[in-house]
Amino acid sequence: MTDPTPLSAAGDRHFDGLAEKFAGSLYGGPRGALRLAMLDELLPAMLELDGQPLLDVGGGLGQLSAWFARHGHAVTLLEPAGDMLDQAREALGGLPVSFVQAPLQALPERAPGPWPLIACHAVLEWLSDPRGAFATLAEGLAPNGQLSLMVFNRDALRLSNVVKGNLQKALDDRLEGTGKRQRLTPISPLCHDQIAAWSHEHGLSIRGVAGIRVFHDYLRQPPANEADWQRLVALERRYCRAEPHWRLGRYLLYTLVKEGEPPSQESTR
What we know:
The chain has 269 residues and is of the alpha/beta class. It has a single domain, classed as 3-Layer(aba) Sandwich (Rossmann fold). It contains ten helices and seven strands. It has a seven-stranded mixed beta sheet, sandwiched between helices. α4 links the parallel β2 and β3. The longest helix has 17 residues. It is globular. 37% of the residues are buried.
């Protein structure tokens, strides 16, 4: 039986043919509902938004593009998987969103910018070279531009494996997914120290960081009723940006800002 979702020649994870799986696993249940609820609160709190054009890199089914479009932004959605892009086009009809079928690595040719605002959520962890991809994002930013970056947290993945009893796997640090079949464990989960180091390399400053799903994934039982769900959401909101809790969010959400270019010699004379 052939693998329906092989790695690309570059080693990146493909999502062609997985639109339904992706929608159900990542957005169709409580995990996705919580993620979107947290973003609805955190995006306006962590970003300076004034209706500037936005590039949504790896925008998938368009949930994030829809949020920004409904908040007054003209959005360009960049996505390599054709079936996801088709569903996004259908879902976002009537909104100010344009669509480009291309991977992140093609950003310099297909959507070069420079962009005042880029969003790249849950993409780098599916790439074989996330560091190189981060560099591409940084290069696409305008001076003083903002990057809303969300990555799958390696440290949270380690804790999750311990909670599940996968002690040897955690000890061996064998946390990466294989990128095969329909399993959705990322092939390149990332940690905060990597993001901090890469930001420094490329002249980006970390203006904000938050954890997404800080508590949800460690519950022994899911919320039993609406009241429990609201208590969980309240806990997530209270501690998502507080030490030490944000560090164990399943995802880490960053606002990164590109340092402005220094004034030219002529302007200082």
